[in-house]
Every structure is written in structure tokens, then in C-alpha cells.
């Protein structure tokens, strides 16, 4: 086709609001799209619809009360939020949790990672037109939530990890029930691959869409599976181990092309690694050198007043590198608290990679990033 004919057939530009009232935005996200025909020529993510102000709310609560705010950042993966906050406060106050509490923290973090990735697996399948994976995913997720309910009474928001340790030890029968879940869950990963991962229609929709090179992913500050899908194997658990991750054996899955499928499958492989970590933690907790009951550091006051100063702690949460920067003025409440939410940084790159995609690809690209808007709109 000559340039003259192509110019003559050029269509008018159209402005389309994708969201915020759209089920595939996974929350109140608006993407302002400018399209020519089916091709996107400009995409502008628009955040802020939740108006949460959580970082400011920290300043009006003491360190113990502020813990409940962390659950509500990434409400699909609350345990790691508790952990990152407590690590920052413990660095401020010079508190060292006992070893048993650190194993419990790693244990619940990996169970949460499984539950969170299951939500991604199910909802991404729905985004791509496959409803059955959603039913499979939530069947297994309910089992994890049953374990959390036995442990701390919560099924969504936990406040289980506390400054200095954790709120409760493993109840009677919990270890056996957890092992039963892992035994049931590991073979299900092969079912997921048969059902969705290697479905030819699903792969056609995702394998060549939303490509991100490793250099581009790093320059935009991506983290978690969204970064590792592009090649870089950065994982906070390996790069700067916290809790007992330096004592645990696991691999960090990576992708090749940074496509929607790579981002999807990195999470599928991570669930298998998390299951192995859970078993290692259970084995360690059964050893006599980690007696039941040693779950809280001694001498932690109810009204904590860390010395004036600042501390930063970050972890490998379900959606990436989650960090808390805490500033203390020696009062019972934080002087300042800033959260490095991985979803907030991950969503920024949409303006670049959606350009040139088709309208139908927006759902695939956005779904593959697995964002939670509660963490974006802090």
C-alpha cells in the first residue's frame, strides 16, 4: 500500500475512558486512551480515585495502633504489609524478634503470596475470557484463608505480625492442616497449566503483547514478578535477606521477553517455590531449639517511643519491592511514614507500553501487572 493510499484511509482520533467503572481495572483506575481505529496512540493512567491518605493517618496513631493501616494498603496480600512496617519500626527502636517469630513471619508471608497469586490467576483468566480458573483459584485460596482464620481470627485483614514478633503461636492441629493443604496444592499447579497456562488461545492473547525489556523494566522502577518476567532476577529475599530467608532454599523464577504471559507464568512458578518454603518453615518450627511460645521480643513496651531518627525496611511482597520509611521524633506516634508501594510504580509504565497496542490488549496488559488500587492510592 502506498503512503498516499494509507493517508487517505487514516481514521479520526477518538478519546476513550477505560475505567474507572470497569471490572477489568481491578479497582478504580482510569486510563485515558486516544485511539486511531483499534490502535492506541496515547495512554495516560489516572490514579487517585480512592483518596485514602493512609500515610498521613499514621501520624495520628501510636505505633501499635498504626499497624491496622498496613493491612488496608494491599488488602489482597496483607501479611507482608504488616511485616514491612514492623521491620522498619523495629530498626527504629532496636528490637530483635526471636527466631521462632521470624520463621512464623516467613511462613505466613509465603502462604499469603500463594493466596495473592491465586487471586491473580483467577481474575486474569476472567479478563481473558476463561471463567473456570477463577473457581479453581478460589477453592484453593479458601484453604489458605481457613489457615489464617485458625491462626489469628482474620480472613482478609490480619494484623498478625506485631512489633517485636507475632500475635500468636501455631494452634493445635494447625501444622497438620497446613501440610495437608500443601500436599493438595502442589499437584494443582499442573492442573492450572493444563487449564490456562498452555491453552493456545490464552497464549495467543498474551505471548507477544505488552513486551518490556529488562533495561526498560529497571528504568521504570518495576519490581516483583513484573520485573523478573523481563529477565532481571532481583528479589529482596535474596538480595537483602530479612527474617530467615537466608536459611531457606528456593529459586527465583524469571522470564525472557517480558510479555503478559511471562508476567503471568512467573507468578505461577512462584507459587510452587512458596509451597516449598512453607514446608521448610514447618520443619524448622518443629525443632526443639525453637520451642513454642517464644514469639515476642522481651521488654517491648505497650506505648513504644523509638529514639529520634529514621529507618527504612523493605521486603519482597506479593507485588514487588514494598518498603516503609519511618521517621521518629521520640513521641508515641510516627513523625512521618512513607510507603514505597510496588503497585504505584508498576502502573506508571502503562503509558509507554500501551502505545501501539490494540484496545483489546489493554485488559491483557493491565491484568498482567496484578495491581491493587489500595496500594496505588495511599
What does this protein look like?
The chain has 378 residues and is of the alpha+beta class. The chain has a single domain (3-376), classed as Cytochrome-c3 Hydrogenase, chain B (Orthogonal Bundle). The protein is 47% helix and 13% strand. The chain has a 3-stranded antiparallel sheet with strand order 1-2-3. Strands 6-7-8 form a 3-stranded antiparallel sheet. Helix 5 runs antiparallel to helix 6. The longest helix has 29 residues, at 99-127.
Radius of gyration: 22 Å
Describe the sheet with the most strands.
Answer: 3 strands, antiparallel
CATH topology: Cytochrome-c3 Hydrogenase, chain B
| CATH C-level label | Mainly Alpha
Q: In total, how many domains does the architecture comprise? A: 1
Instruction: Report the count of strand segments.
Output: 8
Question: Approximately how much beta-strand content do the residues carry?
Answer: 5-15%
Helix and strand element order: HEEEHHHHHEEHHHHHHEEEHHHH
Structural class: alpha+beta
Any idea what the CATH superfamily is called? Answer: Cytochrome-c3 Hydrogenase, chain B
Q: How many helical stretches?
A: 16
Characteristics of this structure?
Cytochrome-c3 Hydrogenase, chain B, 3-stranded antiparallel sheet, globular, single chain, alpha+beta, 16 helices, 8 strands, 378 residues
Amino acid at each position: 500500500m502506498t503512503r498516499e493510499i494509507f493517508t487517505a484511509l487514516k481514521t479520526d482520533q477518538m478519546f476513550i475512558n477505560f475505567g474507572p467503572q470497569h471490572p477489568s481495572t481491578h479497582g478504580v483506575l482510569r486510563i485515558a486512551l486516544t485511539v486511531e481505529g483499534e490502535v492506541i496512540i496515547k495512554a495516560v493512567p489516572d490514579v487517585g480515585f480512592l483518596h485514602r491518605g493512609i500515610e498521613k493517618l499514621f501520624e495520628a496513631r501510636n505505633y501499635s495502633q498504626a499497624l491496622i493501616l498496613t493491612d488496608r494498603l494491599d488488602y489482597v496480600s496483607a501479611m507482608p504489609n504488616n511485616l514491612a512496617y514492623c521491620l522498619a519500626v523495629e530498626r527504629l527502636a532496636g528490637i530483635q524478634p526471636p527466631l521462632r517469630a521470624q520463621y512464623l513471619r516467613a511462613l505466613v508471608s509465603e502462604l499469603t503470596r500463594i493466596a495473592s497469586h491465586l487471586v491473580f490467576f483467577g481474575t486474569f483468566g476472567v479478563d481473558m475470557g476463561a471463567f473456570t480458573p477463577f473457581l479453581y483459584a478460589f477453592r484453593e485460596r479458601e484453604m489458605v484463608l481457613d489457615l489464617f482464620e485458625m491462626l489469628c481470627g482474620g480472613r482478609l485483614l490480619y494484623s498478625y505480625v506485631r512489633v517485636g514478633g507475632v500475635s500468636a503461636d501455631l494452634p493445635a492441629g494447625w501444622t497438620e492442616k497446613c501440610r495437608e493443604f500443601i500436599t493438595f496444592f502442589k499437584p494443582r499447579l499442573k492442573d492450572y497449566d493444563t487449564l490456562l497456562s498452555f491453552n493456545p488461545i490464552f497464549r495467543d492473547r498474551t505471548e507477544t503483547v505488552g513486551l518490556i525489556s529488562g533495561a526498560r523494566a529497571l528504568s521504570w522502577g518495576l519490581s516483583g514478578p513484573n520485573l523478573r518476567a523481563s529477565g532481571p532476577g532481583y528479589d529482596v529475599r535474596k538480595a537483602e535477606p530479612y527474617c530467615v530467608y537466608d536459611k531457606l532454599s528456593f529459586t527465583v523464577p524469571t522470564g525472557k521477553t517480558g510479555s503478559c504471559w511471562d508476567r503471568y507464568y512467573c507468578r505461577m512458578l512462584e507459587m510452587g517455590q512458596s509451597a516449598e518454603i512453607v514446608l521448610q518453615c514447618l520443619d524448622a518450627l518443629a525443632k526443639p531449639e525453637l520451642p513454642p511460645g517464644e514469639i515476642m521480643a522481651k521488654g517491648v513496651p505497650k506505648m513504644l517511643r523509638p529514639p529520634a531518627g529514621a529507618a527504612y525496611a523493605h521486603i519482597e511482597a506479593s507485588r514487588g519491592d514494598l518498603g516503609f520509611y519511618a521517621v521518629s521524633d521520640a513521641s508515641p506516634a510516627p513523625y512521618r511514614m512513607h510507603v514505597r508501594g510496588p503497585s504505584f510504580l508498576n502502573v506508571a509504565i502503562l503509558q509507554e507500553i500501551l502505545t501501539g497496542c490494540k484496545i483489546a490488549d489493554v485488559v491483557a496488559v493491565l491484568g498482567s501487572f496484578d495491581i491493587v488500587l489500595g496500594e496505588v492510592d495511599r
